[in-house]
UniProtKB/TrEMBL annotation:
Stretches assigned to the Peptidase M15A C-terminal domain: 6-116
Name under which the protein is recorded: Peptidase M15A C-terminal domain-containing protein
Organism: Flavobacterium beibuense F44-8
Source organism, top-level taxon: Bacteria
Length: 124
């Protein structure tokens, strides 16, 4: 199922094979719409490199936070070929400051960036 021009629902499915529950479709759509803005800004494809949605069991197995935004399909771990996680994070910050992406959580890791749509600023 296509969510936006460049993102499909399948990309956000849990890595254990579980599909995103229908009740979380509004969340995953909002994440995809925000990532679409980032993709347009960067002019490069965005890869859901880690997790989109996670089941509670899978979240525990990967050491996710007990109240992780991934549990409600409100987050995505992303990478972009040719860009460092810091470069991706800087682009997200710029777009948030310009009011083009939703304020939320962002964590910069060695190989990816976590972005979520919690609505309040959280950084790690």
């Amino acid at each position: 199922m296509k969510l936006t021009q460049n993102f499909s629902l399948e990309e956000f499915n849990c890595k254990d094979g579980t599909t995103v529950p229908e009740k979380y479709y509004p969340n995953v759509l909002q994440v995809a719409e925000n990532l679409e803005v980032l993709r347009e800004y960067l002019q490069r494809p965005i890869i859901i490199s880690g997790s989109g949605y996670r089941t509670k069991k899978h979240n525990t197995e990967v050491g996710g936070a007990p109240k992780s935004q991934h549990l409600t399909a409100s987050a995505a771990d992303i990478s972009v070929n040719g860009l460092s996680p810091m470069q991706i994070a800087e682009a997200i910050e710029t777009l948030i400051e310009e009011g083009k992406m939703k304020q939320g959580g962002m964590g910069v890791y060695p190989t990816f960036v976590h972005y979520d749509i919690r609505g309040t600023k959280a950084r790690w």
